[in-house]
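We close this part of the discussion by returning to an individual protein. The amino acid sequence and the backbone structure tokens for this protein are reproduced below:
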Amino acid sequence: MNFVFLIISLVLISGFVGSAFAQQMIVEKEYSLQEIEEMKNTAVLITTNSGTFMIQLFPEDAPNTVNNFLKLVESGYYDGIVFHRIIPTFMIQAGDPNTKDPDSDRSLWGQGGPGYQIHEEFNTLQHDRGIVSMARSNHPDTAGSQFFIMHKDNNQLDAKYTAFGRLIQGTGSFAALDNIAKLQTDRFDQPIDASSATIEKATIIENFSTTDFPAPERNVSLVKKIKIEGGITDRYTNTLHDISFDAPYRWAVYEGEGDNVNLVIEPTGLEHNVQIQIDETGFTPQILVGSEQRDPSIESAGISTAFFSIKGGDDPKILSNYIFENDAGRKAHLVISTQNIQTPTETVQFKIAQIHFTNSDTTYSIVHINLTEWFRYEINSFDSVVKHFEIMIDGKMQNIEFGQHPVFRQLIADNRQKSDPESLPPARVGGCLIATATFGSEMAPQVQFLREIRDNTVLQTESGSAFMTGFNQFYYSFSPTIADYERENPAFKEAVKITLTPLLTSLTLLQYVDIDSEYEMLGYGIAVILLNIGMYFIAPAVLITKIRSFYKLQ
């Protein structure tokens, strides 16, 4: 039996390419359109004894990276540096100052940098032949001075490394690339004759015009990790359809075919314990994001009143049907419905939440589908997509601003509530209700930490999964009420936060031990439980006893 989560209940009852050894981060700045245009109107000329590279830069995609590259070139940083990593049909890499000394220890090649790191700027540029991109270590924000030039197409690097430039056709750059790529290397991919792969001089070319060059190949969409509300989330951006939103924690976005937006968002594998629902019911919760040409003939009050239903099912039963308007005057149609589907053996009921809105000539829809008895457990995912959904408005990506509207908030709250009767799922599907309410967001690091403990520790054992079944029956009998009260009472919220802090601190101990068996988990779990019993019960009891004894002596 894994007892880690018993602690929580007790508390609640009581109240690749490259490396970087750098020391500091560059502070990101906002670049004006003029600054970006100035960087755009420059190119970099790199002269080697195997040929010359002319590099076009893309500051619109990676302004901080381009600025850093230009500063290094301007300072002469790259002069004398060797292309220390050469892999034909893949890429060539340079930028390590350790390579300037021909007598230096080659085992250190690839480990040097400028003494700082820069933030990633992943974008839609494809890593095709001739693309220039930043090398880094495993962490995204560890680029510094090392860069690589693609020898052949490799789109597996797209949105994982910061592409910021490309070689210019007709300048001999690709011939130089091939010359260096075919140099003889040792077993570490280092050039045997370093002098043949040395940058003699890197210079900036001013007043460079890109007018006559074709646009680089790009991916239509991009998923990148961003910091938000104290945590990390995946932000999906589609540059063709000008939409953007934050995918729910550990949900993946799958793109369908067609000329319009056609996306399916689903939980990934075991995450969120959703695998239990899939195994028992055969259905995976989904959020659908779509678009179509606006049709004024089916609109009412400036918004389409058409709504989504499952083909082949019975007639939908409408539970809620609202048209509301945000502060900017944009209207939305919000529908909550149920629909029965007849199978050979039984009748299955689905619940559907959907919101529709228009912009210019396009109608957008965001639809959440789940089995009725499981619906409330993933309503937060639908809420997250709507709250962070952006479209192009007046030439700028802007939030649709429906997620905070009182009508939408009330419907989300209503659909979080337990229906009666309801068959609770054997394991939790959604987030930690109390922790989410306490720390303000599903993206909060404290909430993500609890999820990691649950998913990567507890649910990896049979006893842990069995424990979660019983724990959920208990936890979800009172947690929605506590979470709602926290949202209404800031003082109570702060009290819960103070109460949870020692618990979270004690659970971090599990990050510093190796747990390879259920017996080890049992031992560490009991130890953490005893620690928390001491903190939450024994220590207060002793303190109260001491205080009482003190006053009796007065």
